[in-house]
Amino acid sequence: MAELDIQIGIEEGEWPSEEVLQAFAERVLGAAASYLHVKAGQPFPKMPTEVSLVFTDDASIREINAEWRDQDKPTNVLSFPAFPLKPGGMPGPMLGDIVIARETVEREAVDLGKSFDDHLTHLMVHGFLHLFGYDHMNIAEAEIMEGFETRILASLGLSDPYAGQDPV
After folding, report:
1. Is 126 a known ligand-binding residue?
2. Which sites bind Zn(2+) (predicted)?
């Protein structure tokens, strides 16, 4: 079974407590890891694989986005793999970091007509897949990644976030 060691950090913003976020992340990322391992055949090391979730605000993620992606604007989620990993490759003991911005998640949830928790769930799964080397830079990659997202979210009782949209 795929085991995760989830580290939570609240840096900025009006987030729930660490305990609440920990339980939320264990449910969401546990479902994602289980799907990848059982359904998609993703190998996992025998020891727990560590992933770090950083919860912040728009100002902080804007700085990170400008520094690492040359995009001087806030974004919803950023993923930073600890080591390059091709889809289906064996991860090391540290997967990497997922950084999520509160205000952007809130705005997008309202715009999409979704609850904050449902949108946060989607972004956690999305960021988690990036740590495993999945991407959406072209149609073929997007179809694979979005297919995984949709099936993982369905396992959590959520609808397809891409219904009616073209990949990419």
Report:
1. yes
2. 126, 130, 136
